[in-house]
């Protein structure tokens, strides 16, 4: 395991007894590609006006995400994880600092279809079939002919294991299946960056693990640069090449940990000593940041 402290903390950031990188493990960010990073965030802060004060959601966040990297962000509620994701998606503007996606602003990248966003809820249109939900973005963007859009939609539903459900409406699909449709829809425009905001948080543990395996399989085939926000430490370790730890009030990066576990990753990894050690280490980092005295939102 490789850790880099990004801010002072009140607890030790020791190696937690880990023995070091495993041969064949995840690559460091710089090793994914020799060119510019897929995402570049420099000294970004975000504040929101409240009736009696200004709420600082994020403060001085600097971060690079390499092409093809799977990055997870963990932290307590109210630390600004979702705010950071929305900034990368170009849904909100920073109060200060800069963000770029391959040299473009997030808004420019989003308009070009460079970004795919998977929300906490699938947000499928109930009157459209699974296939019609997947093709929605390509219809709006006027990508290809109707036949080409439907063919692409079928390919993506096959990719997420729903090739037999293309004509099913959301009400006929389980929660996990609806989330697979949401992922397929996010991939419809062939995005350069896939952003996931706690997409499996409402699922039971067994379904969640199955969805994590599906996500890994899709990522392995597509190699889309991926940024996942999650509260689940084990999920972050299982999926990621690198995990960022955020502290709260104000939201800020306090540490980054490289996940030196071999790929491809299988469910047996969940019983591995190195997996347990990494999970315990990240949990310790989360608790090293003192809790805020007052509550607030993650916005």
Q: What's this entry about, in short?
A:
With 299 residues, the protein is of the alpha/beta class. The chain has helices spanning 29-32, 81-88, 106-111, 130-134, 136-140, 146-159, 175-186, 205-222, 233-239, 273-288; strands at 2-5, 39-49, 54-65, 70-74, 96-101, 115-118, 193-197, 225-229, 242-247, 252-258.
Task: Describe the overall structure.
This protein has 299 residues and is an alpha/beta fold. It folds into two domains: 2-114 and 193-288, 3-Layer(aba) Sandwich (Rossmann fold); 125-190, no CATH class. Helices cover 32% and strands 22% of the residues. The chain contains ten helices and ten strands. The strands form two sheets. The chain has a seven-stranded mixed β-sheet with strand order 1-10-9-4-8-7-6, with helices on both faces. The chain has a three-stranded antiparallel β-sheet with strand order 3-2-5, with helices on one face. Helix 6 (146-159) packs across helix 7 and helix 9 (233-239) packs across helix 10 (273-288). It is globular, with a radius of gyration of 19 Å. It starts with a strand and ends in an 11-residue tail after the last helix.
């Amino acid at each position: 395991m490789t850790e880099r402290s990004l801010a002072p903390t009140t607890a030790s950031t020791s190696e937690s007894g880990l023995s070091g990188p495993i041969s064949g493990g995840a690559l460091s960010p710089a090793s994914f590609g020799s060119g510019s990073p897929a995402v570049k965030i420099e000294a970004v802060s975000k504040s929101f006006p409240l009736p009696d004060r200004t709420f600082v959601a994020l403060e001085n966040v600097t971060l690079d995400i390499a092409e093809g990297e799977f990055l997870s962000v963990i932290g307590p509620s109210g630390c600004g994880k979702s705010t950071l994701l929305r900034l990368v998606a170009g849904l909100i503007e920073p109060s200060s600092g800069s963000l770029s996606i391959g040299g473009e602003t997030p808004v420019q990248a989003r308009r070009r279809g460079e970004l795919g966003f998977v929300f906490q809820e699938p947000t499928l249109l109930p009157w459209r079939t699974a296939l019609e939900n997947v093709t929605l973005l390509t219809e709006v963007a006027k990508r290809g002919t109707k036949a080409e859009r439907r063919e692409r939609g079928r390919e993506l539903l096959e990719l997420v294991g729903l090739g037999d459900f293309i004509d099913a409406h959301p009400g006929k699909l389980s929660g996990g299946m609806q989330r697979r449709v949401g992922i397929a829809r996010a991939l419809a425009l062939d995005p350069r960056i896939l952003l996931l905001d706690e997409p499996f948080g409402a699922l039971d543990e067994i379904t969640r693990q199955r969805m994590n395996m599906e996500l890994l399989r899709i990522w392995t085939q597509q190699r889309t640069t991926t940024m996942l926000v999650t509260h689940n430490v084990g999920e972050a370790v299982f999926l990621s090449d690198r995990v960022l730890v955020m502290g709260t009030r104000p939201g800020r990066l306090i540490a980054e940990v490289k996940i030196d576990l071999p790929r491809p990753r299988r469910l047996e990894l969940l019983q591995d000593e190195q997996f347990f050690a990494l999970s315990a280490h990240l949990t310790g980092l989360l608790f090293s940041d003192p809790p805020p005295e007052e509550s607030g939102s993650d916005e």
